[in-house]
Amino acid sequence: MSNIIKISAYFTTKNITRGFFIALLSASSLYLDWFGVVNYFLNTLLGLLTFYYLLQADKKVWFWFGFFMATLWFWWLSVSFKNYGFAWAIPIGILFSSTIFGLIFTFFGTISEYLASYHKSLNLLFKALILLIFSTIHPFGFDWYKPELVFTNSYIGIEKWQFALVLLSLALSIYKKQFLFLLLILGAYPYASHFKNTEKLSPNIALSNFHINVVDKWKPERQQKHIGMVFNTIDQAIAKKKSLVILPESIFALFLNQQPNLMEALLKRSHQITIVLGALYLDGEVPRNSSYIFKKGNYTVANKVVLVPFGEVNPLPDFMGKIINDLFFDGAPDYVAAKTPTDYEVNGKTFRNAICYEACSEPLYEGKPKNMIVISNNGWVIPSIEPTQQKILLQYYSKKYGTTIYHSANMSASYIVQNGKIINVE
Length: 426
What we know:
By secondary structure, the chain is of the alpha/beta class. It is 42% helix and 16% strand. The N and C termini lie far apart (64 Å).
């Protein structure tokens, strides 16, 4: 009976409302951007209020914050179920991911309250520390939640030391009940970027954009039409005297290295222009999600390093993973990841290869690459906020590492990101 009473204490209007309100604050900049509103002052204020209220919340509110934060940020994770004929599973997927985040936040909230029994300051300091390091916590290998992401388009820097200064100033103002400590936040202003990329953008890069929904993409009767669209895009880039054309992930919905006629046509055109595009690659019996780089009559393959949990690789134990694969993916085997990122050179510039999801993961930025080519197929999760969240994450990493990112996408906008700023493609 006592356990039931303890659990029921979480389900009060007060706790649920507070958790939802703080989660809504944390997601506001994301949704405003989705609707085309990017306001640095507003994003700064909303971000600061998020952490000001969250630091003061108890473990019950932390549970609901984690639950609603995951719902607002990551509901799109389950949208792809509809493409497999399992639209009924979308609410289950959302509930599962939201509950996982809720339990994680409850765990840390419980520890913070235990520490509070020794000293109130330990409670605040522990919460601040958890928020600071939360970007290193990856449930089931999913690493898109970074608390400081809310400051990407704001007057607050996104470096860890800047986020730490923000959390420290808020914790001190709460503990001492003196708002004077909030002045410390001024030190978190991004006065300069150590890794700022000053290279000029090349005018000779053709960044393509497609709008082929995933249901049509995999229909055999539509394949020739889509292939024609790809070659038409390449030929247009050649006619415009471009030196490089970039096409989206899986723009060829087939194992391209098993198609000699297509390979020959691409290799022929590569004498006139370098071609980067996405397609499947059959490595012996191992399926891979890959980029193909055609250059001067030759080609190389860059395989994906960070696979999408549940979408491309199952993070569950083997016996559970087999059940999920049989139920949702017709028993299809998981893709296999490459061990290290691939770099390649085009016209004297070195580019880091990245395919969709992995471009928003820290391992791809090892060595602080100056330039990155990202190809995406966002059709799996359309309509949703995922393309907007992906864009903000690319801005975040571009700021953090000084990487200029050329992003070609299917079913969402293509653009360039330099020093965290979006440059739209005409």
